[in-house]
Amino acid sequence: MTVLCGVVVSFGQTQYESSTDFAKYAMKLRENALLKIEPKVIMSPTKTVFNGSGPRYLTGPSLMGRGALSIGPGRYPWKTGIVTTIFWIGEHPTVNNPVPNDKSSWDKYWTSSYGGYDNPEPSARRNYIPVTFVPRQNPFYVALPYNDIEGSHTKAEAGSVIPWFKEAFVRDGQTTLKGRWVAIRHGSRVCYAQWEDCGPFRTDHWQYVFGNERPRPNLNQGAGLDVSPAVRDYLGLGNKDLCDWKFVEFREVPAAGPWALYGDNNTFVILRHQSVDRFARRTALRTDD
To answer: Which among 8, 13, 79, 101 would be 20 to 30 A from 216, CA to CA?
Structure first.
């Protein structure tokens, strides 16, 4: 990272004859450290295929440890029996979904930011990501039908309805919702994802997203949650299956899961990069001494 290169400026003469030499050394340290701290997914001996009507997909590996199948009561309640639809970055509009997904409510260059088309076809995916590229953002993402921004300004009700608004607010017109972690439950499995878009259909239903209302009627049988292909594959969902979901604090999200692996918007990845940078700086300082 550029921070690593910036360290060189403050050092005196070292064994590295140029900034290029040190940059190579720092990147090597980064690679070694990432190998040590990359989260590991513990596989179960078998995978389960969900039976029933509609297309089904093999579920992902089961997770052992840190609350994979049961989270404590936490701060937020489960919203149960929610019709769940699948959406993806780069999706073209259809009769039942008239809004294209090349941009999100908060990123007009969403497809580019992600790195490409998040192809939902099972044959075009492996290990929860497209086979043609490594995504630059977390492939585990969802949409919920509320946006705290309208016309480049923060909505009037946002401060009183969003539970974490006070701690997350930076300035008028900057969302406090993007990137928030959500738990999605289907059967005995729980998946974790980040809130990255608004929908399905609505962007004003705070009474459901943060309150006790049910999703309102729409063209997809009252769907109240959109999930990405990665979430679909992990939970073994068909289209319009029923799921439960709730907001979770980052500390509640298991680190040993595929949702922790990719993306410059991913809290886990950001923390790993910060850890590597600190390690490289400390090592460089010891070498300088």
So the answer is: 101
